[in-house]
Amino acid sequence: MRVHLCVVGRLKGGPEKTLIDDYLDRFDKTGRSLGLSLGRVVEVEDRKGGGMAAEAALLRKALPSSAFWVMDERGTRPTSPEFAQQLARHRDSGTGDLSFVIGGADGIDPALRAEAQGAISFGAMVWPHMLARVMLSEQLYRAAAILAGTPYHRA
Fold first, then answer.
1. If you placed Cys at 109, which of 56, 63, 69, 125 could pair as Cys (CB 3.0 to 4.6 Å)?
2. How far apart are the C-alpha atoms of 38 and 61, rounded to whole Å?
3. How many Å apart are CA 79 and CA 121, to the nearest integer?
4. What is the pLDDT along the chain (155 residues), one digit of tens a residue?
5. Which CATH number is 2-148's, of 3.40.50.720, 3.40.710.10, 3.40.50.300, 3.40.1280.10?
6. How far does Cα 47 stand from its chain's mean position?
7. Angle formed by the axes of helices 129-148 and 15-31, nearest 10°
8. Domain residue ranges in the chain
9. How far is residue 12's CA from residue 86's CA, in Å, rounded to a whole number?
10. Nearest in space to 23 (alpha carbons), one of 139, 126, 113, 112
11. How does 66-93 read in b/e, with b if 16+ C-beta sit within 10 Å?
12. In what order do the strands lie in the sheet with 68-76?
């Protein structure tokens, strides 16, 4: 199963990009033997200032398939092992492409959120979307490490 990130905002060089690249590379290497691989990282940007609805339209065009989850403060708060099992269930059910969507500064358009298979939250606090990308990338790697039985996750 290919895992994609569809996100609002363009990431330039810097510490966030270094972390994201590292974790996604680790996810891809660890996940390959598990039937998980990194698909595309698609960055969209609404240059016309159309707000969440315009961002949602750009995100819909970027999604490689209909299976996607949004990262949203109203979502469920799975543990890392539960998140790993969610990935495994998608993989095992034959999902070919699974995307994770991170919105812009104003969040995810409610209509797009309603179309998603689910919503995941990193907690009650709101995180800048660039840090949410770092955290999601790390959790993808952690999920692959859990499924592979490596000692990375020490819970």
1. 56
2. 19
3. 11
4. 999 999 999 988 899 999 999 999 999 999 999 999 999 999 999 888 889 999 999 999 999 877 899 999 999 999 999 999 999 999 999 999 999 999 998 889 999 999 999 999 999 888 888 899 999 999 999 999 999 999 999 87
5. 3.40.1280.10
6. 23
7. 20
8. 2-148
9. 30
10. 139
11. ebbbbbbbebeebebeebbbbbbebbee
12. 37-44, 2-8, 97-102, 68-76, 118-120
Please, where are the H alpha helices in 9-64?
A: 15-31, 51-62
Which residues are paired to 118 by β-bridges?
69
> Distances from the Cα of 59 to the Cαs of 44, 66, 67, 86, in angstroms?
7, 12, 13, 22
What DSSP designation does 5 have? E
Report how far residue 129's alpha carbon sits from residue 61's, in angstroms, rounded to the nearest whole number: 20
How far is CA 65 from each of CA 12, 28, 60, 113, rounded to the nearest angstrom?
Answer: 26, 19, 9, 15
What is the reported pTM? 0.95
